[in-house]
Specification:
Layout (H helix, E strand, L loop, with lengths): L2 H24 L3 E9 L6 H8 L6 H11 L13 E9 L16 E5 L1
Antiparallel strand pairs: 1-2, 1-3
Helix pairs in contact: 2-3
Amino acid sequence: MKLKTQIAVIVIILICIGAGYIRYKTNQPYSYIEYHREVGRGETIWGICSEIATDKEDVRELVWHTMKINNIKSVDQVQEGLMLVIRTKRKGNTEKPYKGEMENSCIQKRKDK
């Protein structure tokens, strides 16, 4: 083989290996962390989910899943004292910190699911 052909074959092989590695890393399964959170006076699901969501998580999706998990059909059903179950996604085995400190002691981290 000519030198140019050999180099082209090596470059193509390296590109395929790199693409495979990237695909492998991006398809890692999510683990879920479950929180139990009591709704306080004047709080909304959106506000609570915004406290828990990470920068890489879509708050709209987290709100939708939280309403689905808790069998909430309308935001009017959310009242003070209601205990919410919130499951956030964590990719692989890494656990990222919250956006801000969770000062409310009603939030309890449970376990990965």
